[in-house]
TrEMBL record:
One of its GO terms (cellular component) is plasma membrane. This is Extended synaptotagmin-3. PANTHER family: EXTENDED SYNAPTOTAGMIN-3, EXTENDED SYNAPTOTAGMIN-LIKE PROTEIN 2, ISOFORM C. Residues 173-300, 318-459, 626-747 form the C2 domain. Its main location: membrane. Belongs to the extended synaptotagmin family. Residues 485-526 are annotated as: Disordered. One of its GO terms (molecular function) is phosphatidylethanolamine binding.
Amino acid sequence: VHFPDVERVEWLNKVLIQVWPYFGTIMEKTFKEVLEPKIRAKNVHLKTCTFTKIHFGEKCPRINGIKAYTKEIDRRQVILDLQICYIGDCEIHMDISKFNLGVKGIQLYGTLRVILEPLLTDAPFIGAVTLFFMQKPHLEINWAGMSNLLDVPGINVISDTLIQDFVAARLVLPNRITVPLKKNMNIAHLRFPIPHGVIRVHLLEAENLVQKDSFLGAIRGKSDPYALLRVGTVQYRSKTVSRDLNPIWNETFEFVVHEVPGQDLEVDLYDEDPDKDDFMGSLLISLVDVMNDRTVDEWFPLSKTTSGHLHLKLEWFSLVNDQEKLHEDKKGLSTAILIVYLDSAFNLPKNHFEYSNGECGAKKIKNNKYLKKTEREPSSFVLLTVGNKTQKSKTCNFSKDPMWGQAFTFFVHSAHSQSLHVEIKDKDRDSALGTSVVCLSHLLKDPNMTLDQRFQLDHSSSDSFIKMKLVLRALNVEEPDPQRVKAGVNASKQGPVRVVEKGGNQQKFVSPPKPEVSKVPPVSKDSAALESLLKKDSREDLDTNDSSAAPVLSETVAGLNEAEREQNPEHPPSSALHTRAVVAPTLPVVQELRLAPSVASLGSLPSSCFELSSSNLDLHNGTEMPLGEIQLTVRYASIRQSLVVLVNGCRNLVPSSNRGVDPYVRIYLLPDRRWASRKKTSVKKKTLNPQYDEKFEFFESLEDVKKRTLDIAVKNSRPFISQERKELGKVRIDLSQEDLIKGFAQW
């Protein structure tokens, strides 16, 4: 999918193809000389581990696009999002004892974020590189040898999931890999930056969900819906509402947001069944919009299903070190977050008998077999607990001075009374190697609400310490910018599309909230205000993946039209762009939009950078088009192998009767005129300027699409026995003449 601010980097892919064989040679050497000895040292059973074949194949990773952030970020950093696709033919085989294990192919898709910071005034000009995936990458592995048992249906899902979780624990937010490029560079604050904020999600209710339960394939019963909510690697599940297509949950969930723009809120609805839960629709919400709006309370249309809306209230909290904001919440919700940077421990006892003088310990130590176990260094991990939530660190093997280097976040309800409990345990024995309790009220004595020190361990050796940095931040709701037009329902975005039989959410569509009159500048008095409004919005980068909102021009003018209609209800304007007062200031605005860095992101529109110029926008709408106009956005989505047609709206339609018209749009991809492949928008009642903003997809290869023609008709929804003319107008677009990868938007 091509976005206006995602750039294609074919030159970089050509470089990768050239250097891939050399990279393969380096990796083969690394596997033999570095990885093999490390695997052998891990366990006595792995001492015979040998790599018998290492070949990284001919196919190299491909970068489908790069998005560079320069405006929304600190001047001393550069942020790049790389869309990575790797369909590899690598082969790696190894022998352990008499068993042969191996991999003979890997598929990986994901968005890798690369942060270059801090930028320096001397060589190497970049202090460090930080890498992480925004969401869990899609991963598939073809196994070979004994390990091809993992390809058995049922087991393969489990094996791939385990490996995805292993990758997520190291490379998916909030986990990062930071590589310093300059000597003596302190990278602790780069590996563990303070999160951007907290999103509180009130899952309220849903309506008109699809029926999934059926009896003998015929009688449909009511479903038992529940919701899965996800931000990054954190997922919560709501309660299940039995036998209800309009469920009411009234539940609240809280997520820590580490990267904005980048992270999104994902909501999936399922019907709970004894065998397999049925998918009922999903929602993807841009957290950038929620952050800017502060509070969003909307009914969102579900995507990837035929009907259904979800009512969410979303609240954005910024993190401040102001102790006055730490008042207790009457409803028991969080008022702060605690960030724990777990660094290391020193002089851990080899076992708990080193500091216990009981007879039980003395008896056990006499046992020779046990003595061997107690003599070796401990393999330790840490359990951190605040309230009823416990988190576990990774395990550091065979070290009395373990280095964990991890960060954890906890929601805090009462900073004055809650405590952090730390317990270091040995992996091989259930015994505790040391404990520590830190009252969060100690953090309040520091003006920055931060503690960075060694903490003495209790129930341990006298010189045993644990090094941690604790940061407390209050949750604060800031007032939104009064000049900003709220995103509202437009905060929702289309996620990765799965193919469903019925295209799109066609039964019901909630139109975007209408701007208040006070927010819309008066057209006739001050045309400069309109221009400044558009310029301001064009600077906002909503970072959308895929959305179903209108392009900027029609959206803004629709708002003006709405304001005019409210001010003068007796004489509704015949067209959004009909009066000369609107037309006059619009021309320079269109030129300004052409130069904006993210024109399409302004209206949350998923397409390439359209040349919105006065030549293809018939602003004056003369007599050469007596039947009216339709605005369409068409592009080809390469990754999904589909033609995307966005029906924005119509203007100046000619009524077919005195009764008024109820227009809808019908689409065929000729020569296919089958009823099943027909696409159809919702019906708009009694209007000659309908606004649809509905998206449809035709899943065909680009070569096939280039040979086809779009047949689009605007029709009047009339009673079956009516004599009124049904067709209001028609247009055909020869797709062989268009640059579909770039896309086009036009009246």
